[in-house]
Amino acid sequence: MSAKQDRIFSTPQSSVADFRFDDKVASVFPDMISRSVPGYGEILHTLSEIAQRFVSENSNVYDLGCSLGAASLAMRRKVSAQGVRLVAIDNSEAMIKRAKEHLDAFVSPVEVDLVCADIRDVAIERASMVVLNFTLQFLNPDDRDRLIRKIYQGMLPGGILVVSEKLVFPQPRLHKLLDDLHLDFKRANGYSELEISQKRTALENVMRPDSWQEHQARFARAGFEESTLWFQCYNFASMIAIK
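== Carboxy-S-adenosyl-L-methionine synthase ==
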């Protein structure tokens, strides 16, 4: 299934609306995320490797904020344990509809439940692996602690949480450098200054990233005794926490 090119912000807009994961975004999402998030492919590849090691028999796996199901596909690819159920959740009907098409195209013994819902309202039960792939940053900051705590409480001992996010940095010079390198990455992938500027405006009110230190403190507050940052490219990173 070939992805359409992301041209959503290529024409001048008199008033840039807040970013929404609607049908327009869903139709170009694979192109958008691959050209916008450095290291995205490496993160997906490693989710497969982590799933192979951590997903246990008769357990549940959760992809929270699944978008088109790329993380779900990656995890299913290497799961060999029996009796595993994968729950993929997103609050965008457009994303869930396309995720079903993507997941149905690959045969796997791992059952998938696609759920259109708010991830804050879904119970987490008997989880051996939970993934938040560029999802937490779109939640209200007040809801993040509650969600991570709920995930911890619903995980099996030895279960793993993977959280991938854009980061902010407390040191202004480092923050500017890594932000500038990310902008260069987007330019190198064909985005114009207009597209970069308008998308940034669209995201300002809906995406509020945390620092790695804030994520680590949140994991600890939820009960995770072990957490680390396993991948970083510019201001994008992926973290793991083990129960």
